Each structure stands twice: as C-alpha cells, then as structure tokens.
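Recall the central idea of this unit: under ordinary conditions, the amino acid sequence of a chain determines the structure it adopts. In this exercise we apply that idea directly, starting from the sequence alone.
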Amino acid sequence: MPLILHRTIENGAIALWKITEELEDLSQLAGLSTDDLITYSEISPLHRKKEWLATRSLLNLMMGKGTQINYHNDGRPFLENSHLNISISHTTGFVAIMLHEISLPGIDIECLSRQVGRVARRFLSPEELEFCTSEPELSNRKLLIHWCAKEAIFKMVPFSNIEFSTDILVSLNDATHNSGSFHGFFKWKLEEFLIQLEFLEEKEVILVWGCTPEVNQIGQ
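Accordingly, the structure predicted from this sequence is:
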C-alpha cells in the first residue's frame, strides 16, 4: 500500500496514494458494502475500477472502515453519517483525498508529465497565459498549477455553469519551488471571493488544495 502523503492541515487532512495494487488486493483494502458492490459492478474500464477502489481504500486509511461515500446530484461527493466534508481527485496511477471539518474543500492532482499547453487558452485569462508562458522552462509546470488550482476551486463552489478563464483566477508568484502558497479568486455576479491555496510537488504529481468558508455562503 504505497501511501505517499498523509498530512494534517488546519481542521482537516490530505492524503495521496500511488496505485500499484491489483484489483483483488484493492478490493480487500476497500471493504466494499453491498451498495458499493452494486456500483462497482457497473464500472467497466480497468483503470476506473482501480481508481474507485483506491479511493475507498485511502478513505479507510484516513477514517477507518465503514465510512460511505455518496454523491450529490451535481456529482460532488459527500460522506454518509459524518460531519466531515470531502474532496477527491485522481490522475493516472494516483488518487488524493482532502477532508475538512468546516468548509467545502477542493483538491486536484495532475501528473507532471501531462502537457496542457494546447488547451491553455480555454481555462486561462490572457494575463494568466502570459505569466505561464513567459519562462519556457517553467511553462508546463505553471500551467499545471493553474489548472489544478481552478479545478480545486471549482470543487468548492456549489455551481456548475462556471467559466474557468473569467470566473476563476489565480495569482501565482513563484513556481520554482516544490511547494508554496498562493491565492485564487472566484468571481460570482458582483462579488469576488479570495481563496487561499497550497501546492505541492510529490513524486510524479502536482497537488493543489484549499477551502474557504465564504464560498459556502454564496447564494444563501
């Protein structure tokens, strides 16, 4: 069980798992309920089966067995019979979870090897694009941090009709280190919400995570 990271943060925790197990081993670690087994039987692709099982295995490690993941109509996950909020992310061979006691969390991971330059204009503002491409040797790293940051913020926000290039903005000062803090901004109608974010390079992936109580009050 290659647990790469398990870190306590303020009012919560984050964890990262590299998926190396076979299906049988993951199934035993996941300890699926009857409802889980029904859902699992409907998953066809092998990599999706592994990600699904690894997510539940990692949650068991963080909280103990018996915690059930369910989903809202918009696809956002929640924990049955628990006061903790959860965010989940996966990429090729990895799965990450963030738990938080107070706010809706957001975590996103991407492989460092992924090239996102071709789609950069779809999710970046002109200013963000200029920043990300100003140093060619750091370009893809900056792009990945921006992408993960916007995905993480999207997971914290109770809306789906969001334009990444205009409604979610990122202010990243330095991408040369393996970890750091920076700010994101979510724009909704005439309001702008500041969101504190963290990033970390761990093994072959970039993680970005954060949460904000303010966003949870939007529309209330």
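The helical segments are 23-30, 34-41, 46-63, 120-123, 126-133, 139-156, 164-167.
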